[in-house]
Amino acid sequence: MYFTDRLDAAEQLAKALQAYRGRRPLILAVPRGGVPMGHLLAQRLDGDLDVVLVRKLRAPSSPEFAIGSIDESGWAYVAPHAHAAGANHAYIEQEKRHQLDTLGERRRLYTPGRPPIDPAGRMAIVVDDGLATGATMIAALHAVRAHKPATLVCAVPVASTESLALVRPLADEVVCLDAPEDFYAVGRFYRAFDQVEDDEAIRLLDDAAARSRPSSS
After folding, report:
1. Could you tell me which residue ranges the Phosphoribosyltransferase domain spans (predicted)?
2. What is the spatial distance between Cα 95 and Cα 90, in angstroms, rounded to a whole number?
3. Which of 33, 45, 46 has its CA nearest to residue 7?
4. For residues 105 and 24, what is the distance between their CA atoms, to the nearest angstrom?
5. 3-class state of residue 157 by DSSP
6. Could you tell me the domains of the chain?
7. Dist CA 31 CA 91 (whole Å)
8. Element (H, E) at 7
9. Which residues have a Cβ under 8 Å from the Cβ of 65 and sit 6 or more positions away?
């Protein structure tokens, strides 16, 4: 299954998530790729948009390869393959500190002057543009679950079967449009998969915040 771009994938996810329309779901996007998708989903499902800030822990010799992940609280998931990828305890601790600093910078950049939307008691849908190792989504679901949402949904257009097996126990429902056996990279399933820049993510989050103010006042 191929998607034209992230917005095409979000449109298709919105159709699969129509049961949640009218329940004012809280769409929590994993930056940066999940933000354009979350913005569209919030519109289609009449929900609110915010970010769930998590960072992958990078392999020493391959920064694009995740050996785990960390959320804003400092909780971290370290994958079983981390040591095989060359990450010893000292490296992992250093990487955690680095990514926590980055998360602090991202929070100040993305939501200045406004607190995160509290998922407590709400229908929360965590969205990203795909799952490769599943590490980032594991941290995202853990972070949201800690706030006690009424229902926690993981929504992605495409994922590896291995990553789905890891995240299913962490969500009340997983909505995934395609889990091909020959998965090896998320971008392979998009015809256009340009990097989402901070400026775009900030603009979309600001727009969503402005739209939600009248209904929350």
Report:
1. 10-188
2. 9
3. 33
4. 29
5. strand
6. 6-209 (3.40.50.2020)
7. 24
8. helix 6-16
9. 58, 59, 85, 133
Four-CA torsion 122, 118, 157, 46, nearest 10 degrees: 60
Q: pLDDT tens-digit profile of 45-89?
A: 999 999 999 999 999 989 889 999 999 999 999 999 999 999 999
Cβ atoms of 11 and 197 within 8 Å: the answer is no
Query: Which amino acid does the sequence have at 86?
Result: G
Parallel/antiparallel/unpaired status of strands 151-158 and 123-127: parallel
Q: Coil, helix or strand for 118?
A: coil
Q: For residue range 101-151, what is the model confidence (pLDDT) as tens digits? A: 999 999 999 999 889 999 999 999 999 999 999 999 999 999 999 999 999
What's the rounded Cα separation, in Å, for the pair 68 and 48? Answer: 28
Question: Are 191 and 2 a contacting pair, CB within 8 Å?
Answer: yes
3-state DSSP call for residue 158? strand
Beta partners for residue 151, in sequence order: 123
List of residues 6+ apart from 159 with CB closer than 8 A: 130, 131, 132, 134, 176, 178, 179, 183
Long-range CB pairs of 158-162, under 8 A, 24+ apart, other chains included: 158/1, 158/3, 158/9, 158/130, 158/131, 158/183, 158/186, 158/189, 159/130, 159/131, 159/132, 159/134, 159/183, 160/131, 160/132, 160/133, 160/134, 162/133, 162/134
Burial class (CB in 10 A: 0-12, 13-18, 19+), 8: middle
Amino acid at 134: G
- Please give the angle made by the CA atoms of 193, 24 and 135, to the nearest 5 degrees: 40
